[in-house]
Write a structure and sequence with these properties.
Helix content is 70%, strand content 3%. The protein is mainly alpha-helical. The longest helix is centred in the middle third of the chain and has 26 residues, at 96-121. Strands 1-2 form a two-stranded antiparallel sheet. A hairpin with a 2-residue loop joins strand 1 and strand 2 (50-52). The chain has one domain (4-163). It has seven helices and two strands.
Length: 176
């Protein structure tokens, strides 16, 4: 299994333009909430009065993966995904129109924002080459916020040693 630094560096290689990273700070949370909403409506079973849905399974599997990569990041992701799951369940409990409208709206707008970022980057999204990028994306957002807050500097340095620092603009683009 790849390490935390391996996964973040591979993902970061597709995300060196600060504008692309900024779009991901908005778009990825929208997509994560959308998936939680859309996957919370079908109830697979009830255990002790708690509805188990595909969202529950996605959250559990993702958080276990994050915990295997890094305990600290895994705990942060667990707290964030638990909150997202609660939001998803609350919205899914509403009317069909509000559930579908909110879920699909967030999903579509989130992806539009993502693709705008990749237009700045001049590269395709990471998940096109490796589907694990869909799971690493939310972790990348948390790591980037941490770096901004001066948390995880050693990990940031290791990533930048592999893929270079973030920049404004594509390396082949030279504004006049």
């Amino acid at each position: 299994m790849k390490t935390l630094t391996d996964q973040l560096a591979q993902y970061a290689d597709y995300h060196r333009d600060r504008r692309n990273i900024a779009t991901h700070l908005v778009g990825i949370p929208m997509i994560v909430v959308a998936v939680a909403i859309l996957a919370s409506r079908p109830v697979l079973a009830e255990v002790g009065g708690v509805a188990l849905s595909p969202a529950t399974l996605l959250v559990a599997a993702s958080v276990l993966y994050y915990l295997r990569l890094h305990l600290g990041y895994g705990l942060v992701m667990g707290a964030l995904f638990a909150s997202t799951h609660a939001i998803g369940q609350a919205v899914a409990a509403g009317s069909l129109a509000s559930w579908l409208g909110t879920g699909l709206g967030l999903f579509l707008v989130g992806w539009v924002i993502q693709f705008i970022g990749h237009a700045f980057e001049g590269r395709k999204p990471a998940f096109v080459d490796d589907l694990i990028g869909l799971v690493i994306g939310p972790l990348f957002v948390v790591a980037e916020v941490g770096f901004w807050l001066h948390i995880g500097r050693r990990i940031q340095a290791d990533i930048e040693a592999r893929v270079g620092p973030t920049r404004v603009g594509r390396p082949d683009h030279h504004p006049a």
